[in-house]
Amino acid sequence: MSATAGQAQSERGLADRLGFKPGQVVQEFSFDDDVDEGLRASIVEFTGEELVDEDFDGDVDAVLLWWRSDEEGELTDALMDTVTQVADGATILVMTPKAGRDLHVSPNDVADAAGTSGLSQTSAVSVGSDWSGTRLVVPKR
Fold first, then answer.
1. Model pLDDT for residues 39-90, shown as the tens digit of each residue
2. 3-class secondary structure for the chain?
3. How far apart are alpha carbons 43 and 30 in whole angstroms?
4. Quick one: CA torsion of 90, 138, 53, 127, rounded to 10 degrees?
5. Distance of CA 40 to CAs 2, 36, 45, 61, 126, Å?
6. Residues 135, 123 contacting (CB under 8 angstroms)
7. What's the Cα-to-Cα distance from 90 to each of 15, 76, 103, rounded to whole Å?
8. In sequence order, what are the beta bridge partners of 131?
9. pTM of the model
């Protein structure tokens, strides 16, 4: 297997492992030049759809939220805003800098914000050397 094929398979596996599905429309919030491009590419590859930005006003199936410390405001507010964008049962993946990295966010802060926002935390995952992900699910209403 070539390195490129192996990398594509690995990227597809990451998006699949994070709960994304083929054909999903994924809206991305708080994109900046520090995001994990491998994760973004894996989601596009696996879903077969380009990521849509914060200005997209159509229906979305999942959210990718890059969150860095409290410089960006309150995580609870950001999660409440994203909940209005997705359907019941949808996934919100909150990506935060890992411990020891600039702008790190405590997993407890993510859990507290999720609970306050009415979201269920399902799993945590390490993505690359700089980011940790917390998978949240919008409950059936």
1. 999 999 999 999 999 999 888 999 999 999 866 679 999 999 888 878 778 8
2. CCHHHHHHHHHHHHHHHCCCCCCCCEEEECCCCCCCHHHHHHHHHHHCCCCECCCCCCCEEEEEEECCCHHHCCHHHHHHHHHCCEEEEEEEEEEEECCCCCCCCCHHHHHHHHHHCCCEEEEEEEECCCEEEEEEECCCC
3. 16
4. -80
5. 21, 7, 9, 16, 14
6. yes
7. 15, 17, 27
8. 97, 127
9. 0.87
| Tokens describing residue 61 | 């199936």
Which amino acid is residue 114, in one-letter code? Answer: A
Q: Which residue has the tokens 């930005």?
A: 53
